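Incident log entry.

Two folding requests arrived from the same account within the same minute. Monitoring flagged them as a possible duplicate submission, but the sequences differ. Recording both here for audit purposes.

Request one:
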Amino acid sequence: MPVRFRVLSPVVAFAAAVAVVLSGCAPETAPENTPTPSSPAPEATVPGETTGALVLPTCGELLTADDIVTILGDGYEEFSPGEDFESTTVVPDERVIGVLEDAVKSQRCGWGVPHTSDASVYVIAEVESAAAADLRSHLQSEADFTTTDVDGAPVTTWEEQTGFGHVYAVVSLDTLLIAAIDYNDDTLRHLLTALRKVNPSLPAGSTATPSVSPSATPGASPTPTTPATPRPDPGDRAVLPECDDLLPLSTVHALFGDAAERLDAGGSAADHMPGPLAAETVRAAKQSKVCTWGIPFSDGGFGVVAAEITATARDRLLRSLRKASSYTERTLDGELSFTHESESEFGTIAVVYVFVGDVWITVNGTLSMATAREFAGSAVDAVRSANA
């Protein structure tokens, strides 16, 4: 099911304020909404232990237009969450809300793709040291929250259990507090780097391997760790192999049938995806390639789609797949993959997704699962070779 940007009842004002940016019903031309980088961040000084020691750059300084394209991808832009949006409502946790209400100063920023559901809101704040310490203890004690390390900063996340499964994140580093809805690690790393640059007193980053806090749910198994295939440099485009390299015809003949031929795909990559969320994700991809094979004048056929997607789209897709009971998570040649099998009037339909860095491979068609995984493995080898 496509993910649509929705916020809980405390953030109705925010939803109304940014409807022009995020709604598919918005006008053809979105209004200018990028704050001038030189405009000062809003401040609300309150009595406390700290006295505004941290420098909080503006949104345009934290993530420039070039940074947005490099980190998030084409089509993303900065938007203003609106004056009516209360920074405290970005995450539905009373303790976080209370600390943000008493913040020394704060800055809220939003980045997304106009007329789509791809959007994130971040609130960056300076808070009192005692309140920050108490909040860290609270976040790490919550059974439903997960705390990991991102560039030397503890990041606590949890997922909305109803609606569209938004992921909330809170970073508490010394007196710096970052709260976000639908965040991604790449953006967070960049924000931390930019904040540390102007605030040398903040603890430096770390290369330590993230550790996940154990789940308190009886019998629950930890979320599998995504294989550590290096992602291409964000400034570079991945190489998507040609169809004959992605899956040689000799391999098709050996596993599918000697009569099989490569066929004209017809339509876009989205037309060959097995579901609406997959179609929406590939439609917003940086680039994609679709290849089809089949036995002429028969119902036997399948397709392979390779697409380069953003880190945000990849993370959102992974969350949805992990929530779908019909998909099985496993590895394929050391890479993260998901499989799904169903019956139709044409026979068994197999779907295999594999993630190789920022390249997402889909095999979909009238195949046995064993054959589909063999074809996916061939595509993985081709993508690795093309991007070595």
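Request two (distinct sequence, not a duplicate):
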Amino acid sequence: MRYRAKPEGSGAPAACFLFLNYAGHVDHTTGYRHAIVGWYCDLGGSEPSDARIAELLGAIDADFW
């Protein structure tokens, strides 16, 4: 999800995105064993490109899962 945030004491809004990723589905349930939740903000105000978002999400260590 993309959104704008205005950090306290800053004149310009930051461009941000939230992410949520699940892994490790538990058999016979609708649940998962693991979740990563996070956010990223560009204080320069430019909206993160799809490529930048993919780069950041790809940097999450696959061994976690």
